[in-house]
């Protein structure tokens, strides 16, 4: 087996087709088989599309509910909400992201100090540790941009607990190569493996578990038998509750589309006065560019959204370019608008760039309006506690989001 999924066309149509093809498997079969890292469609392969909102969580949840109902699809629905849980946690505790950047610098410094560690790192990223499973997953990740969830868990555990490598370097290695690489889901999953997400609770990969769930493909030897948790100081900020702007723009706007949200047709009302559209190049993490595969996927996804908006808002100019003031200020001026509207970008490189850009544009008379989605406004506050706090609210969230077939919409 080389990979679960052989192709990843980076279009919304391909994402919707993948959802359609997976729907029959999203019910009890998913609950029974999702932990098996094997070829059969045990999981959806929707993550690269969901991560960029080429297909939205609402669309996925509504389709799965209509097909299976809430009880049979409970496990799959939970997993989709895990994404919201992690996104909400990072929004509420953005210091996790800055700590990750610090841990990266410290990890790199540890390699510089310790030649044996540096050799282990070089072997790990080249897939030549001699641990059959890890070496194969490195190759699979490089070749396909995807790993099954269970393989990601085992990978992170072997990286940290068996090889003793700095966790942040592993997180960065994965993030740069995953088509679904996501600041929240990736960083928080790695933190979970090393005992920082749920303080004191780590994840330890065991050879028998790997053999069982890869159905005999791997039988790794020499794995760590314990996983002592890492510790960190308490966070300075307890919780940053962002006041999310849910009000559609009133006057004419320049629509700015970033990699963070590629479904503007469900972000803006159909009658929004879009004067022009700017689709911006993906923003890379400082010093950590993503793989060619990820960049190609992202570029194709940006081309796809550019093609779609041309159909939705015909006769409006659509441009591609970098996310900077020298591009956007003249674009707004040419369109005759002073407001740029964009989807609220969660914590990560795009958000950091927008934070720098906003005052630069303001100085040139242009305001950026970051329009949030109701889905995020409703789910992110539940990133605060453990997942169970969110899980018990899922039935109410499905009502509030008007996702159940024939459900009565309720107010916020
Ligand atoms: C170390 C590690 C790193 C990870 N890095 C990322 C990442 O960068 N980006 C990312 O989207 N996911 C990440 N995950 C979570 C999970 O592995 C992927 O979302 C999942 O494997 C994607 O495959 P799928 O779409 O077939 O999932 P399915 O099982 O079909 O699930 C459907 C959707 O639910 C969401 N989901 C499922 N499992 C999780 C989970 N554990 N946490 C959060 N959301 C979930 C995803 O959006 C996924 O597309 C990571 C997990 C681990 C253990």
Describe this structure as you would to a colleague.
By secondary structure, this protein is of the alpha/beta class. The chain has 3 domains: 12-92 and 378-400, Serine Threonine Protein Phosphatase 5, Tetratricopeptide repeat; 95-213, DNA Cyclobutane Dipyrimidine Photolyase, subunit A, domain 3 (Orthogonal Bundle); 253-371, 3-Layer(aba) Sandwich (Rossmann fold). Helices cover 50% and strands 6% of the residues. The chain has 18 helices and 5 strands. The protein has helices at residues 12-22, 28-33, 47-51, 57-72, 74-92, 95-113, 115-126, 132-144, 149-162, 167-177, 183-193, 207-213, 292-312, 325-335, 349-362, 374-379, 387-391, 394-400, and strands at 253-257, 274-280, 318-321, 339-343, 367-371. A 5-stranded parallel beta sheet has the order 3-2-1-4-5, with helices on both faces. Helix 13 links the parallel strand 2 (274-280) and strand 3. Helix 5 (74-92) crosses helix 11 (183-193), helix 6 (95-113) packs across helix 10 (167-177) and helix 10 packs antiparallel against helix 11. The protein starts with 11 loop residues before the first helix and ends in a 12-residue tail after the last helix. The relative contact order is 0.13. The structure holds flavin-adenine dinucleotide. Flavin-adenine dinucleotide binds next to helix 3, helix 5, helix 9, helix 10 and helix 11.
């Amino acid at each position: 087996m080389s990979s679960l999924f052989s192709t990843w066309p980076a279009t919304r149509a391909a994402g919707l087709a993948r959802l359609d093809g997976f729907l029959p498997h999203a019910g009890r079969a998913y609950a029974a088989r999702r932990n098996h890292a094997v070829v059969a469609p045990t999981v959806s392969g929707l993550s690269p599309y969901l991560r960029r909102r080429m297909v939205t969580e609402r669309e996925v949840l509504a389709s799965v509910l209509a097909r299976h109902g809430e009880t049979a699809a409970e496990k799959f629905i939970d997993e989709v909400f895990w994404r919201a849980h992690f996104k909400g946690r990072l929004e509420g505790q953005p210091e996790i992201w800055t700590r990750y950047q610090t841990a990266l610098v410290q990890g790199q410094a540890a390699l510089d100090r310790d030649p044996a560690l540096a050799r282990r790192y070089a072997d790990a990223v080249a897939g030549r540790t001699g641990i059959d499973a890890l070496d194969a997953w490195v190759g699979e990740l490089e070749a396909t941009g995807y790993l099954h969830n269970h393989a990601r868990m085992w990978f992170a555990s072997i990286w940290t607990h068996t090889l003793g490598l700095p966790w942040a370097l592993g997180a960065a290695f994965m993030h740069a190569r995953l088509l679904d690489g996501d600041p929240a889901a990736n960083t928080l999953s790695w933190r979970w493996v090393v005992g920082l997400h749920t303080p004191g609770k780590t994840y330890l990969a065991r050879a028998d578990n790997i053999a069982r769930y890869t159905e005999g493909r791997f039988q790794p030897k020499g794995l760590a038998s314990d996983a002592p948790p890492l510790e960190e100081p308490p966070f300075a900020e307890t919780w940053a509750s962002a006041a999310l702007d849910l009000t559609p723009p009133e006057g004419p706007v320049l629509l700015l589309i970033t990699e963070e949200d590629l479904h503007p047709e469900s972000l803006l009302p159909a009658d929004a006065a879009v004067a022009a559209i700017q689709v911006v190049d993906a923003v890379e993490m400082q010093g950590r560019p993503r793989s060619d595969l990820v960049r190609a996927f992202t570029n194709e996804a940006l081309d796809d959204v550019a093609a779609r908006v041309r159909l939705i808002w015909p006769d409006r100019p659509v441009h591609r370019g970098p996310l900077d003031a020298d591009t956007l200020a003249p674009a707004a001026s040419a369109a005759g608008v002073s407001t740029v509207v964009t989807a609220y970008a969660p914590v990560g490189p795009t958000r950091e760039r927008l934070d720098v850009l906003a005052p630069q544009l303001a100085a040139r008379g242009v305001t950026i309006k970051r329009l949030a989605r109701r889905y995020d406004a409703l789910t992110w506050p539940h990133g605060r506690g453990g997942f169970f706090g969110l899980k018990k609210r899922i039935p109410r969230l499905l009502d509030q989001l008007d996702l159940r077939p024939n459900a009565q919409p309720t107010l916020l």
